[in-house]
Amino acid sequence: MNDMPRLRLSGVTRSFRTEAGELPVLRGADLDLYAGEIVALVAPSGTGKSTLLHLAGLLEKPDGGQVLVNGQDTTGLADKARTGLRGKTIGFVYQFHHLLPEFTALENVVLPQMAIGTARPAAEARAHELLASFGLAGREGHRPGRLSGGEQQRVAISRALANRPGLLLADEPTGNLDVGTSDLVFTELLDAVRNAGVAALIATHNPDLAARMDRVVTLREGHVVPA
């Protein structure tokens, strides 16, 4: 295990303003996530799970504390710098695939690579490689509407891994699939993450899936604690 975590949350706080006043969600959350480590985040709805993922993924800024990615404190970064860092170092997988419906499977995996400056031939080669690894060789030219739910999520995972991120964040990545497909896609996701040495934080309500990860954490009173 490397000494420097791929992700470090240190004393992170986040509150939201409601009609009833300030609602504190995170009250000093701490978490270290290392290369090659897959951590399950299992917590009831409304405890701040999505907020934690958004902060870790640089989609939101904390009210206090630090979010460090590869040792870099991102707290004071301008939006453009945060966007650039996110595109190059962080991959996202959501419960719903969020593929661009007007583009093919291949194009959905090519576009995020070109967004960070990868030349199209190299981006297409990487997309073909990833899609084939998820059993989608021959389906690259299909738009999402012609793919099954499991195939769409495999494309979404390929897209998340396209830029070789050091950190992968996933929010119920197989929660929208039937049990059999969910188990198969999750196995493929774990294998891909382990083979790439990625640090991954995966939110799930499924205790069987959580048990297959390296450790399990939860949120309690705004803090990250072992489950």
What would you say this structure looks like, in words?
The chain has 227 residues and is of the alpha/beta class. It has a single domain (38-61, 78-226), classed as Rossmann fold (3-Layer(aba) Sandwich), CATH 3.40.50. 35% of the residues lie in helices and 27% in strands. It has helices spanning 49-56, 79-89, 105-115, 120-133, 149-161, 179-196, 207-210, and strands spanning 7-18, 21-33, 38-41, 64-69, 72-73, 90-93, 167-171, 199-203, 215-220, 223-226. The strands form two sheets. Strands 6-7-8-3-9-10 form a six-stranded mixed beta sheet. It has a four-stranded antiparallel beta sheet with strand order 2-1-4-5. The two termini are 22 Å apart.
By CATH, the architecture is named 3-Layer(aba) Sandwich
Kindly provide the radius of gyration, computed on alpha-carbon positions and rounded to a whole number of angstroms: 17 Å
Strand-pairing-aware structural class: alpha/beta
What's the mean pLDDT score? Answer: 91
- H-E string: EEEHEEHEHHHEHEHEE
- What would the principal axes of the Cα set say about the shape? globular
Strand order of the largest sheet: 6-7-8-3-9-10
CATH class: Alpha Beta
Q: Enumerate the spans where pLDDT stays under 50 for 5 or more consecutive residues.
A: none
The separation of the N and C termini measures 22 Å
Work out the count of structural domains.
1
| Number of helices, where a helix is a run of at least 4 consecutive DSSP H or I residues | 7
How does the major sheet shape up? 6 strands, mixed
Q: The CATH topology, please?
A: Rossmann fold
Q: What is the strand content?
A: 25-35%
